[in-house]
Amino acid sequence: MSTNAFYITAKGDPTQVLRVGQVAVPSTLGESQVRVRILAAPVNPSDLYGVLGVYPVPLAESTLADAAGAKVLIPGYEGVAEVVAVGSGVTTAKVGDWVIPYKGGFATWAAEAVVDAANVFVVHAAGDANKLSLEDASALYINLPTAYRMLKDYADLQPGDYVVQNAANSLVGKYVIQMAREFGLKTINIVRDRPEFDALAAELRALGATAVVRDGTNELAEYVKQHAPKGTQLALNAVGGGAAAKALLDTLGYRGTLVTYGYLSGNAEATVDLGLGLFKDVRIRGFWVAQWDRESTVDAKREMNNALVALVRAGKVRSPAVERLPVPASGSLADAEKAVLPKVAGGLAGFIGKKFLLEFKH
Question: Catalytic site residues?
Answer without folding.
Answer: 55
